Q: What sequence folds into this?
């Protein structure tokens, strides 16, 4: 979110595309702020992947990010975009593999992993 906010506040005219994978729509962080930014065609193009529950009339069934979604939500590899992937290790590895399979060069993919810090009490 910090990258999106910085991009927007700088008045950068290049489009920022966000593919946001979430279990269900109620778990979307920054929903209102992202929606507002997505109304400006030069700010954020927003695509959601709901993995478990979807709202009524959602355009695709629940499921994880796949090659079709990558193709529809990202730029063609010929444009040489830099892609940032953040999430649990298994998600990051899967999304990175899908980006590479779609033609994005490995050196154009930046990753950040997070996960459990220990046992839940």
A:
């Amino acid at each position: 979110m910090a990258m999106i906010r910085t991009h927007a506040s700088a008045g950068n005219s290049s489009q920022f595309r966000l593919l946001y994978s979430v279990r269900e729509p109620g778990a979307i962080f920054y929903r209102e702020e992202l929606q507002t930014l997505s109304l400006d065609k030069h700010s954020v193009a927003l695509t959601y992947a709901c993995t478990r529950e979807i709202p009524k009339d959602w355009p695709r069934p629940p499921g994880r990010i796949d090659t079709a979604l990558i193709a529809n939500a990202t730029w063609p590899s010929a444009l040489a975009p830099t892609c940032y992937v953040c999430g649990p290790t298994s998600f990051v590895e899967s999304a990175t593999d899908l980006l590479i399979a779609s033609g994005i060069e490995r050196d154009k993919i930046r990753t950040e992993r997070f996960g459990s810090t220990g046992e839940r009490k």
